[in-house]
Amino acid sequence: xxxxxxxxxxxxxxxxxxxxxxxxxxxxxxxxxxxxxxxxxxxxxxxxxxxxxxxxxxxxxxxxxxxxxxxxxxxxxxxxxxxxxxxxxxxxxxxxxxxxxxxxxxxxxxxxxxxxxxxxxxxx
Length: 124
What we know:
This protein is mainly alpha-helical.
C-alpha cells in the first residue's frame, strides 16, 4: 500500500504536488486551531521523546552529519537575512551574554556572602 502511494507521488506533476501539500497544510492548520493547550503540550512531549530516542541511538557519524546540516542551514538562513534581522539576532545575543554575566556575578556574590557568614560563624 505504501509503495502504491510512493509510485503515485513519483508520477504526479509539480502542480498536483503543490495542491496536495496545500491541502495537507490546511488540514494541519485546522487541526492545530481546534486542539487544546493540553493536547498540544502532549504532542510536543511525544515529539521530544522521539527526538531524544533517535539521538540516543544515532552513531557518531550520523550525529556529525546532522550537526553539519544544521550548521549549513543556519549559515544559509543568516546569508539570506536582512540587516534588520541580523541586528535583531545580534541584539538578542548581546542581551543573552549580559544575562549570563549577571548570573555569574550573582553566583559569585552569593558564594562570597556564604563564605563571609561561614567565617563569621567560625570566629564567633
